[in-house]
Amino acid sequence: MSDTLSLDPSGCRNRYLLMRHGHSEANRQGRIISSPGQGIASFGLSPQGRKEVDDILETWHWEVPTHVVHSDFLRTTQTAVRVAEHFGVTVTPNPGLRERGFGELEGEEDARYADVWACDAVDASHARFGVEPVEAVAARMVAVVRELERRAAGGVVLLVSHGDPLQILLSAVTGFDLRRHRDRSPLRPAEVVALFES
């Protein structure tokens, strides 16, 4: 699968930054909120999350984005809009950047993530608990980058998404074993990283 997902950074026309949304109401409540039915309309940024985003903007040391593309969940939308307003750039929602679907664990305590990650470490194609397989998340996240490559050239694109999808994307584009995506250091709320190391 890595042969079809990995991207050659030297062949990319755009440069990409990744940003996890700020601390959210779902984080505050310790709940898994992964369904569009809940995540698009509610569970936006907490006061802590809004401060995290503002703090990142005050100390921004990455390239200035020319465009912001984001998951259409409320917590990522609010993060993306704040960044876009700060830099005076356009913002575009993209469902391909949504949170990983956690199936029957929706609404449960976030300690249940560990049950899914343990299964991920054995099989990147598993769908236990009705979750979206790691391989499927990787495919849709990489598809977003490939589509942006087809449509625009020479810009700095900030992708605003969620913890698991971003770790999976970082694993996929570098050929890292998708089963081991949790071995990577998780992005903190409102953290920004480059898609490819320079």
TrEMBL record:
This is Probable phosphoglycerate mutase. InterPro entries: His_Pase_superF_clade-1, His_PPase_superfam. Pfam families: His_Phos_1. SUPFAM superfamilies: Phosphoglycerate mutase-like. It comes from Halomonas caseinilytica.
